[in-house]
Structure formats: structure tokens, C-alpha cells
Write a structure and sequence with these properties.
- The complex is a heterodimer of chains A (about 725) and B (about 150).
- The termini of chain A are far apart.
- In chain A, about 30% of the residues lie in helices and about 25% in strands.
- Chain A is built from 20 helices and 29 strands.
- By secondary structure, chain A is of the alpha+beta class.
- Chain B folds into 2 domains: about 70 residues, Ubiquitin-like (UB roll) (Roll); about 70 residues, DNA polymerase, domain 1, CATH 1.10.150.
- Chain B has a 5-stranded mixed β-sheet with strand order 2-1-5-3-4, with helices on both faces.
- In chain B, helix 3 crosses helix 6 and helix 4 crosses helix 5.
- Chain B is globular.
- The chains are: A alpha+beta (about 725), B alpha+beta (about 150).
């Protein structure tokens, strides 16, 4: 039953020990492997210097048969990072795209650190931004090594050598060879200290629709995800967790479970009771048969309404200052009209299609994990601590992830901790594959927090925004984690107010406060993090204030962005492409929202049809500025996908509690968007020569407010609760 | 012992006949292209063909599948399957890709019964298949492209 994933082009990564990796490769006759120190000395002409750890990085292998393998340091969870990273490197190297493959890098922060994080991890829509220079320099260095190797062999000048479509050529003499043929000789060349990069007018891949490297394996059932890993003698485990967050096992009785044929063991771990069996279904049967008494003394026992009641009480008191510009109170006093509103947002589960899972194997000298790890460095540290190992004794093989939306990146690495605890509880006597069912996933916490906003804002008699007071009540996703230091200042978790305190709108009298609510419900970033709710509030308020001041919503936005040309251009583009000023028939509405995030700028116009309390989203027109559009088709796909993902939060998704128990459990009562609900989507990309910025997340924030504004345009009803419910009074 | 005919091969399995076909396929036969998404036939990630029809293998007892012709993503063949897979690849439909085996299995069934589906036909035929990455725009396009290629 053992299948290693090494034969798959998208399977397991190389051995993470660099020394061994290099040695193995060197022993393969004629192979090229680039171990390159790419210095960021600030000498590149078009880029600021990312701050982070610099160290040798291993990104490229070329075999004698001309196969070019890119090692992607980012988790591939659908956003196309593998294709993107390869595009950057191959652009400079000059390889034939049809011969390019990819592998996902193993856990090794020394080699594969995210230059913006300083540790290995994928997130914050940073992949292209952080590797923009690094991957191109890796490709350029390799190209130079091939040119020098060829020059030496043919006794010609290296500057006259070209590398195109995997062919190294000296035109004058007629010499040519493939990259594979020269790989061994190129390996013996010194790695150049610095290399010039192509100017943008010479690009042949960047800016074009380069085909995805994972399309073939993912359409033939051959792609290996973490859930597909099989190890010899492997047991599958499922965990019975407390019905309320913060609950602990008081006692349990596994006698019935152990009678089931195929159930091998039942063990207690900190998060509950793990049942180990020969296969997944038997483990589930075993779990159903385990009887557990829970200690709920420290558990969240409240219902959703009670939690919001507490939020409202907090909102009525002064909070921690998050931003203060001008004099918001005075601005409100002199306002001709004010808008005062409360917005509420539910807890949300990420619910990636591939449920959480991972496989662990203990050995005498360490542990090996196979998982869709999104922050390998943290997963290594957490597992090592539990197992009494050093982090580098925990080998992580990064597998394709069937979505994440943030769930697989966890500062406390709950799911990886469970792997380690179960392996430890059985003394590592067998490899263990821990599988979460859909119910485990939806009821398992680490949600986008529940949030309440209170805003009071006003316009003067000219329709200009005169004052804006804003309170946010929510649970912090950083406080109490190892990442608190990087995101929390003076008690304010930046992710709670991002999108407000850094708004590009010229709001001169602004006061923002936060309250940190406490609950045992674990919370986490969710695709686009704080922008998931702040964009909705900001863009609904701007719409209302435009009307209060007698202005067109687009015109007011453009006034507020008069000093922000890149932002204004995106708003204009969306409005123009959507025909903003053209009339809509009765019962239909058009709304625009703009929200920058992750250094990218996205505006969306939504067109909706409202019938009674039902509404349909007919069309979304999006305008995007994410700097250099490395792959316009992937950018388009990310916007389409962000719309499809975010729509479910507009229509119906919410996690609610009844006496602490989650009321949703599967895709029937936490139902994702389905194909019949998908609107037509148009994506327009701003041509830009600016450094590339994020695209995985920035498509989400403007979607819900664009729809909310469109519904307002159609009905005059302002929705301030997500998900939308048109049957409720505004 | 249960006799399963999968992708043209016959297997003898010593499993509880109540075990869902999905887990027999994945855990016993190691055909991992068929995915687990919900376990309740509400997401379609586990879709296989049983006697030519798309079925949710997570909610189909292995005992009931005995003796029937089962095809998984690894075993699809024929003109319709080729056209669907080719269109999926040409349009780069996939993102995370986890649901796409099931999407493709459903699309093959749809196109096998309806040579020229409208958007509405596609919505009906594909509504049981969830894609959390939201690739629906391209799924629609790919089915139209495959239909054109087959015409």
C-alpha cells in the first residue's frame, strides 16, 4: 500500500537536508542543481529590498533529459504560486515551458524562508511580491552558469551565448546544446554573485497566459494531496473533540469502540479522544462508539445572541485607540447630516474542500510529517516541542492542499499538534494519518471572528465627510499567540482595523477604537482577514454618506481619492466598464465598492435583481491593479474564485452557537456557493510596471459591499448584517 | 467477500458491506483520485460512475456496488471524457483541484446525456458539485467548449 509521491511531478519534495540534497544531485551524472545565494543588496533598479533572512536557496534542478524542476517554497493551495514562481525563474533562464515541473519545498526555513516573514510560510498574498526579485535572480544566475559552461566548451565568448527554449546556442559558430546536455558542466561553474535581470520589454513569459503547471495532474486524479498519502502500516485516526470550545475530557469509555473489527487503539490527547483504525470509515465508526464525559467548566457555553449582547455592552464604553486624525467629534458636531449604524458579522469557517489532515511517522532520530503545511516553520516548532525534538528533527513534506483560505496556517498549529500528540500517545509504533471529517472541520473552530462595528459619520452642508467615529468589537486573532508581537501594538490587533486605519480615502477627522472580546472560541485569519468585514463597513458607509451629501457614490469616492491616483484609476475603470451612469430597469440595482488590500487595489461593480426578499447577483465587473500582471489569466481566475468564495458569506454562511454548541455541521447547513448562483464575471486589469502585489485575497473585500450597495440602489434597503437577510427590517 | 469491478479490473474485498464505496476505493484499493469532501452526498467531490451514471460514492454502500461497473477519474475513457479533460486543461479550470475529479465525472455524465447543454442545463447538471475555490465560471466555459469539440 505504500506509494511514495516522488514519482509525481507535484508530489513530495526533495530531502530537506541541503547537504544530502546537494550530494545526491551531484552524484546524478549530468544533473544541474542550483544552490544559489541571492543577495538582496538593494542594487536592483526597480525594487525595494524585502526584509528577511538571506541564505542560500535551492530552487532549480535540471536533469539530463531536459526536465526542469522548480522548487516552489510556497504551499500550492490553488492560487497558482507554483506556476507563478516558475514563470519568474524560467523567464530569466530561458527554458522550454513544456519541460517545466514543480515540487513543493519541504520545511526548511534556512533555504525557503518567505523574505517578508523571515520564516517559511505562505500567506498574506505575499508569494509573488516576496519572490519577485529572488526567483528571477535564481533564473538569471543559472542562465549565466550555462552560458559560461558552453563558452568554455566551445571556446567562445559567454556574452555571445543565448539560451532560449532550453537550447543553449552560439549563433556565429553554430554550436548548440540543450540545458540537459550541459547540466553537468554548468554545475561546475561558480555561482555568480550578482546578475542583471532582463528589462521588461524583453519578457516573453511575464505578462502572458502561461499555462498552469498543475492542470494536468489535477484533471486526471493523479495529483497527490495530503489526504492521499499512504505509508506502510499506516493507521487512520479521527478525534472526538469537545462539543463546546474550551471543554476537556473528564472521563471516557472506549470499550464498545474497541470491540469494532479494525479499531486498533483509542487514546486520550489534549484535544479529545483519538480512535485509530485500519481505515478511515472504521475509525469513524469507532469514534461514534466512544462515550465521553466532558468537563465544561472553562468552556464557552453562551449562545450567539448572548455573545453579541456582550459586544454591544463593550461598544457602549470607550475602547483602545487605534487611530486618531483631526477631531472626529467636532467634525460630527458641525455635520449637516449624520449616519449612525451598527454592523454585525458572524463567525465563519474556512471549510476548504480537502478537510484538515496530515500524516506523521516517528523514528529514532526524529519525526516526519506529510501535510498541506502553510507555515512549515511553526508546524515544525509545535510538533518538536510536543515530541521533545529540535525543530529541524521534524521533517515536513509539503503536499498539495485542497484549499486553505487561511485554515492551514495557524499560529498555534492545532492540527499539527494533534498529529504529534497522537503519535506520542502510541509511542510512534505506526505511522498515523489523522483525518478530520467535514463536521470536525466546520465545528472545529479557528473561525473568522464574530465582529460588531459601530460607526457614526457625518457630512457638512457641501456633502464633504466632516467626521467619522468608528468602534470595532471582536476577538483578536493574534493576542495570546506567538505572533502577538508582530501584529499587536498597545493592545490593538492591526488585523481588526486594517482597511479602516489605512484607508486611502482622505478622512481628516477620524477616530477608531477597538474592544478585545474574550472567548474560548479559537479564531484565525480567513482569506483577506480583517478586510472581510472592514471593507463592508467602509464601503456601505461611504455609499450612505454620498447620498446624505447629495453626491454620486462614485463621484464621492473619486473626490476622496484625489491624492491617490492608482486607487482612483481602479474606481474609474470599474465604473466605466460597468457603464455606471447607464439606467437600470426597475427591480435591478448597481453598486460599486472599492477596497485596497495586500498592496493591491480592487474595485467591483455588482448588478443585482431583487424580487421580494430574494436577490440574484447577475454580473460582477472587477477592476484590478496588482502591479505587474505576472499571469493575467491566473489573476482573472483569482478574482473569479474570490467572488465565488465570498458569495457564500453574502448569501448564508455563518457559524452560530446554541449554548456553546455549533449549530452548523456540513455543506447542507454551511453551504458553499453553487454553480447556479455564480454571476457572470468580467475582470479588467490595470496595466502597470509597479512591483507585483497580492492577488489571492484582494478580490474578496469589495464583493459583499458592492452587492449590498446594489441592493440598496434597487430597494433603498441598507443591509448591515451578514449574511444578508432581506426579510429582516433594515 | 465483495467483488468490485473498478476501471475494468475485478477486486475481491474483505470489508463490511456497509462501508461507503468511497472508502473502499480510497483506503482499500488506493485509488486516491476520488475525494472525500462531506460524507453526505452534498458536495460531489467523491463522484464516480456506476453503470455509466454519476453517483456519490461517499453515500453508496460498497455492498450495493458489488458486481456493477464502477469507473473512477483514473479510469475514464472515450470521446466525451477526453473532450472534457482537454477543455479543463485548456482553460486552466483548476485552482486547488481537490473537487475537480468529481466535477469532471459529473460533466462527463452531463455531456453524455446532453450534447449541447445550455447554461441552465449546466447549472442543473453540476449543482451537486461544490467548488470552494469558486471555479464555476470556467467550469461552465469548459463544458461549452467540450460540447463544441464533440459536435
Amino acid at each position: 500500500m505504500s506509494t511514495t509521491t516522488h514519482t509525481s511531478p507535484v508530489g513530495a519534495p526533495p530531502d530537506p537536508s541541503r547537504r544530502k540534497f546537494l550530494k545526491d544531485s551531484a552524484m546524478t551524472a549530468g544533473a544541474f542543481l542550483l544552490a544559489i545565494h541571492v543577495p538582496f543588496t538593494g542594487n536592483s533598479t526597480d525594487d525595494p529590498v524585502p526584509q528577511g533572512v538571506y541564505d542560500p536557496n535551492v530552487f532549480l534542478k535540471i536533469s539530463a533529459d531536459d526536465t526542469v524542476t522548480i522548487i516552489n517554497k510556497h504551499l500550492e493551495m490553488g492560487e497558482g504560486t507554483s506556476t507563478g514562481e516558475a514563470t519568474l525563474l524560467i523567464e530569466e533562464l530561458g527554458a522550454d515551458w513544456s519541460k517545466v515541473r514543480f515540487e513543493l519545498a519541504p520545511g526548511d526555513a534556512k533555504l525557503y524562508s518567505n523574505l517578508l516573514f523571515g520564516i517559511q510560510g505562505t500567506g498574506g498574498s505575499t508569494a509573488m511580491a516576496e519572490s519577485w526579485v529572488q526567483m528571477r535572480k535564481a533564473g538569471a544566475a543559472a542562465r549565466m552558469m550555462f552560458a559560461k559552461a558552453a563558452a568554455a566548451k566551445w571556446n567562445v565568448s559567454a556574452s555571445e551565448i543565448t539560451v532560449e527554449n532550453s537550447v543553449v546556442k552560439h549563433a556565429k559558430s553554430g554550436h548548440h546544446a540543450t540545458l540537459g546536455e550541459l547540466a553537468g558542466a554548468a554545475m561546475t561553474q561558480p555561482v555568480p554573485a550578482d546578475v542583471p535581470l532582463k528589462s521588461s520589454d524583453k519578457w516573453t513569459l511575464i505578462g502572458t497566459k502561461v499555462p498552469r503547471l498543475d492542470s494536468k495532474s489535477k484533471t486526471t486524479g493523479k495529483a497527490i494531496f495530503a489526504l492521499d498519502v499512504r505509508r506502510p502500516g499506516m493507521l487512520t485516526a479521527v478525534v472526538k473533540r469537545a462539543p463546546q470550545f474550551g471543554g476537556k475530557v473528564a472521563s471516557f469509555d472506549a470499550s464498545d469502540a474497541k470491540k469494532i473489527k479494525g479499531v486498533v487503539d483509542v487514546v486520550q490527547i489534549p484535544s479529545g479522544i483519538a480512535v485509530l483504525a485500519a481505515d478511515t470509515w472504521t475509525a469513524m465508526q469507532g469514534r461514534d462508539a466512544v462515550k465521553v464525559k466532558w468537563d465544561t467548566s472553562a468552556a464557552e457555553m453562551r449562545s450567539t445572541g448572548e455573545i453579541f449582547d456582550e459586544y454591544r455592552k463593550l461598544a457602549a464604553t470607550p475602547g483602545l485607540p487605534a487611530d486618531k486624525r483631526g477631531d472626529a467629534a467636532a467634525g460630527l458636531t458641525r455635520s449637516a447630516k449624520t449616519v449612525e449604524a451598527e454592523f454585525v458579522f458572524p463567525y465563519l469557517a474556512h471549510a476548504p474542500m480537502e478537510p484538515m489532515n496530515g500524516t506523521i511517522e516517528l523514528r529514532s532520530d526524529g519525526a516526519e510529517i506529510w501535510s498541506g503545511s502553510q507555515i512549515q516553520t511553526i508546524d515544525q516548532m509545535v510538533a518538536a516541542q510536543i515530541l521533545g525534538l529540535k525543530p529541524d528533527q521534524v521533517k515536513i513534506n509539503t503536499l498539495l492542499a485542497g484549499g486553505s483560505f487561511g485554515r492551514r496556517a495557524c499560529p498555534v498549529a492545532d492540527w499539527t499538534a494533534e498529529l504529534a500528540h497522537i503519535a506520542k500517545a502510541i509511542n510512534g509504533r505506526a505511522p498515523v494519518h489523522v483525518v478530520w471529517t467535514r463536521e470536525d472541520d466546520i465545528q472545529g473552530g479557528f473561525y473568522r471572528p464574530q465582529v460588531l462595528h459601530r460607526v457614526k459619520a457625518g457630512v457638512d452642508d457641501k456633502g464633504n465627510i466632516a467626521g467619522w467615529q468608528h468602534k470595532v468589537v471582536s476577538q483578536s486573532i493574534f493576542i495570546g499567540t506567538g505572533m502577538e508581537g508582530m501584529a499587536v501594538k498597545d493592545g490593538v490587533d492591526h488585523s481588526m482595523v486594517e482597511g479602516i486605519v489605512d484607508t486611502p480615502y482622505a478622512l481628516n477627522n477620524l477616530a477608531v477604537e477597538v474592544h478585545n472580546a474574550k472567548s474560548p472560541v479559537p479564531v484565525l485569519w480567513f482569506r483577506s482577514v480583517g478586510h472581510t468585514h472592514t471593507a463592508y463597513v467602509m464601503e456601505s458607509m461611504i455609499d450612505d454618506l454620498a447620498r446624505a451629501g447629495g453626491k454620486d457614490p462614485v463621484a464621492l469616492r473619486l473626490e476622496l481619492l484625489s491624492q491617490q491616483p492608482r486607487d482612483a484609476a481602479v474606481v474609474k475603470m470599474a465604473a466605466e466598464k460597468a457603464g455606471w451612469n447607464s439606467p437600470m430597469e426597475k427591480g435591478r440595482g448597481r453598486g460599486l465598492a472599492y477596497h485596497p488590500s495586500f498592496d493591491s487595489r480592487v474595485a467591483m461593480v455588482a448588478e443585482v435583481t431583487v424580487k421580494g426578499s430574494d436577490f440574484k447577483v447577475d454580473r460582477i465587473i472587477a477592476a484590478v491593479d496588482c502591479g505587474v500582471a505576472i499571469n493575467p489569466d491566473v489573476i482573472k481566475a483569482q478574482i473569479e474564485g474570490a467572488i465565488g468564495f465570498a458569495l457564500s458569506t453574502v448569501f448564508r454562511n455563518q457559524i452560530t452557537f446554541n449554548k456553546g454548541v455549533v449549530e452548523q455541521g456540513n455543506f447542507d447547513d454551511y453551504e458553499p456557493t453553487r454553480i447556479h448562483e455564480m454571476p457572470k464575471v468580467e475582470v479588467h486589469i490595470v496595466k502597470s510596471s509597479e512591483r507585483p502585489s497580492g492577488i489571492g485575497e484582494p478580490g474578496l473585500p469589495p464583493l459583499a459591499p458592492a452587492i449590498g450597495n446594489a441592493i440598496f440602489a434597487a430597494t433603498g434597503k441598507r443591509l448591515r448584517t451578514l449574511p444578508f437577510d432581506l426579510t429582516k427590517p433594515a | 467477500m465483495i467483488t468490485l469491478k473498478i476501471n475494468g479490473e475485478t477486486h475481491q474485498l474483505d470489508v463490511n458491506p456497509r462501508m461507503p464505496l468511497l472508502w473502499a476505493i480510497r483506503d482499500k484499493l488506493n485509488l486516491t483520485g476520488t475525494k472525500f469532501g462531506c460524507g453526505h452526498a452534498v458536495c460531489g467531490a467523491c463522484t464516480v460512475h456506476i453503470d455509466g451514471q454519476a453517483e456519490r460514492s461517499c453515500s453508496y454502500a460498497v455492498g450495493d456496488a458489488a458486481g456493477k461497473n464502477i469507473t473512477t477519474i483514473e479510469g475514464v475513457s472515450g470521446k466525451v471524457a477526453e473532450a472534457v479533460v482537454a477543455a479543463w486543461q485548456r482553460l486552466d479550470v483548476v485552482q486547488c483541484g481537490y473537487c475537480q475529479s468529481g466535477q469532471i465525472m459529473s460533466a462527463i455524465t452531463l455531456l453524455s446525456g446532453n450534447k449541447n447543454p445550455s447554461d441552465d442545463d449546466i447549472d442543473v447538471g453540476m449543482d451537486g458539485n461544490v467548488c470552494r475555490c469558486g471555479t464555476y465560471v470556467r467550469i461552465r466555459q469548459a463544458i461549452h467548449e467540450a460540447a463544441k469539440a464533440l459536435a
